[in-house]
Amino acid sequence: EVQLVESGGALVQPGGSLRLSCAGSGFTFSTRDMSWVRQPPGKGLEWVSAISADGGRAYYADSVKGRFTASRDNAKNTLYLQMNSLKPEDTAIYYCAADPEARLRGQGTQVTVSS
What we know:
mainly beta; 10 strands; 0% helix; 6-stranded mixed sheet
């Protein structure tokens, strides 16, 4: 059974930084492309980033490009999202996902950007 556990969310001021983590188990993490998606308050899921299985390629939504960086440590079965220059519009529940449709995702971690 695929299990994903996100952590690292917090309340942060605009311009601040956070690093989210996602621990995966129940599947061969090192062979799976992974994604980050988010759900802003009152809105649907929105794709944020994807990273290849070996970590060599990463892709970003235009809204986060240049501010967010996805990475992974396959030895630790862990995915990361470094978020810099955070804006209020980045406020959302952030999920990691193990499939392109984001059906296989964890419980999420809350990120709130507010002064």
